């Protein structure tokens, strides 16, 4: 008789266990195949996952490339502006301490005003550099200006007189097309004034201009609503009527500034000035007439003054101008300031 198989002994398998193993074998094999290569399982989701992963990685790579390119462009622009600013300021240091004897020239061209090329800041910076240079035998103001601010002109006139006394160096004014109003205010600080026979010289006067629209507003039925604290705060408002008292006050102020101009002309020209009733009336004259009136000394150009008067034919331009780099920096600063103000205003708005 055969002994029954003991299912509980080790190494001995029962028939039921064998059937279970056979049933699990295909499943285990499918699981293994899924782990090794998920895309081989029919009806599985592995191929979708792989496609999504590829798309995600491609998107990430594209974003990284775009970030690298933006960073490169920004750094390139930054390097460009740094080099431009350095070059511009380095160039502005030229024409200093030139040892050989020469005639120093400072140009005064265009409107004399704060922030302009012919501002007191730029002109005096150039004049100081010319006076302080031992190689400069004399300073020449090359003038071509219709005038401008009496304040800027007064500052320049006073400082030139101080520098002239300090350095004991002659300074001359040479007029090209025009030397009128505030430009002539500056010119009289020079030891001598040279003009062309057709130059425009003079206009020793002061003006304050504007418009008045009160009659037109009445015809159109427009009402001006202006509120002020102080009865004279808006007396220059073009849409409000001007009283005789206000007009007299403005005229007094103009007369005072005009007298300051007259005093500067008399101090600068001295006994050479042949004063007549029209001298300080605001009229202007040709260069030849200006010489006859004592407003100028003689005919002459920059080359003539350098060659015949200063006896140093080499001409060196000391004129300081805002170069490209400085203009870019100023514009950038102005843009940043404007943006900051707008941001503050927008944040402070009540809603």
What does this structure look like?
- The protein has 351 residues and is of the alpha/beta class.
- Among the domains are: 44-89; 97-208 and 276-322, 2-enoyl-CoA Hydratase, Chain A, domain 1.
- It is 51% helix and 12% strand.
- The protein contains ten helices and eight strands.
- The chain has helices at residues 15-36, 46-91, 120-132, 150-167, 182-187, 214-220, 244-269, 287-293, 302-310, 324-347; strands spanning 102-109, 136-145, 171-180, 192-195, 200-202, 284-286, 298-299, 315-317.
- Strands 1, 2, 3, 4, 5, 6, 7 and 8 form an eight-stranded mixed sheet that branches.
- Helix 2 (46-91) crosses helix 10 (324-347).
- The longest helix has 46 residues, at 46-91.
- The model is unreliable at 1-43 and 343-351 (pLDDT under 50).
- Strand runs, count: 8
- What series of H and E elements makes up the topology? HHEHEHEHEEHHEHEHEH
The CATH architecture name of the domain at 97-208 and 276-322 reads: Alpha-Beta Complex
Percent of residues in β-strands: 5-15%
Helix content: 40-55%
Largest sheet: 8 strands, mixed
Cα-atom radius of gyration: 43 Å
Question: What is the molecular shape?
Answer: flat
**What is the highest CATH level, the class of the domain at 97-208 and 276-322?**
Alpha Beta
SSE class: alpha/beta
């Amino acid at each position: 008789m055969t002994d029954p198989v003991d299912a509980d002994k080790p190494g001995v398998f029962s028939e039921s266990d064998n059937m279970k193993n056979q049933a699990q074998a295909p499943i285990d094999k499918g699981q293994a195949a899924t782990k090794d290569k998920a895309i081989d399982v029919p009806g599985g989701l592995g191929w979708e996952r792989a496609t999504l992963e590829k798309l995600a990685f491609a998107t990430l790579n594209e974003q990284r490339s775009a970030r690298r390119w933006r960073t490169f462009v920004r750094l390139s622009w930054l390097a460009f502006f740094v080099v431009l600013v350095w070059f511009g300021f380095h160039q502005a240091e030229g024409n200093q301490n030139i040892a050989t004897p020469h005639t120093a020239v400072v140009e005064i061209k265009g409107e004399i005003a704060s922030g302009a090329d012919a501002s007191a800041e730029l002109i005096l910076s150039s004049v100081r550099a010319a006076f302080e240079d031992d190689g400069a035998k004399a300073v020449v103001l090359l003038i071509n200006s219709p005038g401008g601010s009496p304040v800027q002109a007064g500052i320049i006139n006073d400082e030139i007189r101080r520098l002239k006394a300090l350095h004991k160096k002659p300074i001359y004014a040479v007029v090209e097309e025009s030397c009128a109003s505030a430009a002539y205010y500056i010119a009289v600080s020079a030891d001598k004034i040279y003009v062309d026979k057709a130059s425009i010289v003079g206009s020793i006067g002061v003006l304050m201009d504007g418009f008045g629209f009160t009659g037109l507003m009445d015809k159109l039925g427009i009402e001006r609503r202006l509120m002020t604290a102080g009865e004279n705060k808006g007396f220059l408002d073009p849409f409000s009527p001007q009283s005789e008292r206000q007009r007299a006050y403005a005229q007094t102020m103009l007369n005072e500034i005009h007298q300051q101009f007259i005093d500067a002309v008399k101090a600068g020209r001295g006994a050479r000035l042949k004063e007549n009733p029209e001298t300080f009336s605001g009229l202007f004259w040709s260069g030849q007439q200006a010489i006859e009136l004592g407003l100028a000394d003689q005919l002459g150009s920059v080359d003539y003054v350098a060659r015949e008067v200063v006896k140093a034919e080499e001409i060196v331009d000391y004129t300081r101008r805002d170069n490209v780099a400085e203009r870019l920096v100023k514009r950038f600063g102005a843009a940043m300031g404007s943006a900051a103000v707008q941001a503050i205003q927008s944040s402070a708005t009540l809603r």
